Amino acid sequence: MASISLKNICKTYAGDVKAVIDFNLEIHDKEFVVFVGPSGCGKSTTLRMIAGLEEITSGDLYIEDRRVNNVEPKDRDIAMVFQNYALYPYMTVFENMAFGLRLRKVPKKEIEQKVKEASKILGIEDYLNRKPKNLSGGQRQRVALGRAIVREPKVFLLDEPLSNLDAKMRTQMRTEIIRLHNELQTTFVYVTHDQTEAMTMGTRIVVMKDGYIQQVDTPDNLYDYPVNKFVAGFIGTPQMNFVDVIMEQDGKKVSAVFGRNRIEIAKETVARITAEEVNKRQFVIGIRSEDVRLCDESEDTSKNKAIANGVVKITEKLGNETLVYCTLEGLPDSEFVVRGGARCRVNIGDPVKIAFDTIHMQLFDYDTELNLLKR
Ligand code: ADP
């Protein structure tokens, strides 16, 4: 059992570097929480404060009901796994995993039992006598995880544990860490700059920017209800399309005008904006590449009021789909990406009609960049 509570946590480094600002979060027992954000946003610093490796400038940190601001790392009942594995090169896998337990004078039989169990969970039983240099990156990271598991900590803290692995191994280890979390039924806090890792692993995700929390939510909610333009752009690949628009209202109908295009906004979306906000006129529309589509040449588009014109700039064939990057008519510097099918046949310079599914768009305030759509 371990919940973690961060209350008004701040970290200022020497030279007045404000790395983490007023961080408030309740991490529940057995949760898998991921801190994600661009490099330098304060993720590692926050994790290291939980670990006790970094002093907390102000605020309160609780593990369960105990305030641990001044508790030594070794007395916090946590285990940390790092990007660079931090294995002892001259020790075997077994010795690396047993090391912490030996220091604590755990009886030999118990150590053997625990190492055996952990190595079985991680599928590294056959490598126990090897030295780290004779292991692949993925195997080394398993040893590092094993070393944490044998200690049976209340909390696992993982700092970019997969960044040194190649893409294929990263995907595999991702699944293994999810399985590990299910099996161990312990609280996991995981730091990554990779939004795909965050989205696939976290039960809840904390998106950070410049030392501030932007949004704490489930992966689904982050995707569909981003609180601001930053979160909307950070989560999802390819990045969400953003278009500066002027809103025009004609009775109940609301349209967005951009370049030489005008699209009517679905009534379901209009119902989520206040009348007062519609009157502001200037907005940024956000729409994901899967919520727009290229119209077929033979398609009758005369009845569809949400079609924009564009020209193909680049296509990216990904095998299972094609990303079609366009410029929008009247906006020569714009870039707008549409997901085409695997066998999408368009060429650079082709004029295209882009149909918007405006039920699934976002609407941001031009100045504050906050999402104006109510959930
Ligand atoms: P992230 O993990 O999101 O990449 P960090 O938590 O490592 O970000 O860093 C947050 C900010 O704090 C950055 O601006 C970084 O340069 C600064 N920082 C990190 N460690 C130190 C340190 N030991 N001394 C001074 N500044 C630091």
Folded structure, characterized:
The chain is of the alpha+beta class and 375 residues long. It has ten helices and 20 strands. It has helices spanning 43-51, 93-103, 108-122, 137-149, 167-184, 195-201, 219-224, 229-234, 267-270, 275-278, and strands spanning 4-13, 17-27, 32-36, 58-63, 66-67, 78-81, 155-159, 187-192, 204-209, 212-217, 241-250, 253-258, 261-264, 282-287, 292-294, 307-317, 322-328, 331-340, 351-356, 362-365. It has a six-stranded mixed beta sheet with strand order 6-7-8-3-9-10, sandwiched between helices. Strands 13-12-11-14-20 form a five-stranded antiparallel beta sheet. A five-stranded antiparallel beta sheet has the order 15-19-16-17-18, with no helix packed on it. The protein is elongated. It starts with a strand and ends in a 10-residue tail after the last strand. The model has no long low-confidence stretch (mean pLDDT 94). Bound molecules: adenosine-5'-diphosphate. Residues 13, 17, 19, 37, 39-45 line the site of adenosine-5'-diphosphate.
**DSSP E strands, number:** 20
Strand order of the largest sheet: 6-7-8-3-9-10
Q: Please provide the ordered H/E string of secondary-structure elements.
A: EEEHEEEHHHEHEHEEHHEEEHHEEEEEEE
Mass-distribution shape: elongated
